[in-house]
């Protein structure tokens, strides 16, 4: 069993005109592509009027054996997905985003949402990636069941050096004590 495995994905970023008067463009990640050809940064792959699509690859989707619960919950939703985590760049080059990470862990994606300069997109996981992830999860041994610890019996305080015990043997306070 491997402790950590990685698959390479390509991230597709789409820019389309906004309907709002406060922003010019709407940026979204419509899909990720398994085994995408390598690019050097963003490469424009489609253009339809003012709408443009860019591809950036490869980006590693890494699974770790200690995060099995998060991956299981992702698959059990019935619609396994990948989160593309992008962060804004200085904007000197089109597009003004950099792929920070690609993850299958919903909790990692949630933590990235707190960053003000980020774009977090939930995208359907490619079928080949779902099968790869399922094979990894099947190879992980079942975690041992939680076993609650039991308390040990309290040791009764002995009387030494003329000192009276605080509690008597029946568990209650001594009579006449403070």
Write a short abstract of this structure.
This protein is an alpha+beta fold and 178 residues long.
Total number of helices: 3
Helix content: 10-25%
Low-confidence stretches: none
SS-derived structural category: alpha+beta
C-alpha termini separation: 62 Å
Strand-residue proportion:
35-45%
Major sheet: order of its strands?
A: 2-1-4-3
Taking the sheet with the most strands, its summary is: 4 strands, antiparallel
The whole-angstrom Rg is: 28 Å
What is the averaged pLDDT score? 87
**Which geometry do the CA atoms define?**
elongated
Q: Which sequence of SSEs, written as H and E, runs from N to C?
A: EEEEHEEHEH
> How many strand segments?
7
Folded structure, characterized:
The protein is α+β, with helices and mostly antiparallel strands. It is 16% helix and 37% strand. It is built from 3 helices and 7 strands, in the order E-E-E-E-H-E-E-H-E-H. The strands form 2 sheets. A 4-stranded antiparallel β-sheet has the order 2-1-4-3. The chain has a 3-stranded antiparallel β-sheet with strand order 6-5-7, with helices on one face. Helix 1 (68-76) packs across helix 3 (127-139). The longest helix is centred in the last third of the chain and has 13 residues, at 127-139. The radius of gyration is 28 Å and the shape is elongated. It starts with a strand and ends in a 39-residue tail after the last helix. The model has no long low-confidence stretch (mean pLDDT 87).
Show the helix and strand layout:
Blueprint: E1 4-17, E2 25-34, E3 43-48, E4 51-64, H1 68-76, E5 81-88, E6 97-103, H2 106-112, E7 118-124, H3 127-139
Antiparallel strand pairs: 1-2, 1-4, 3-4, 5-6, 5-7
Helix pairs in contact: 1-3
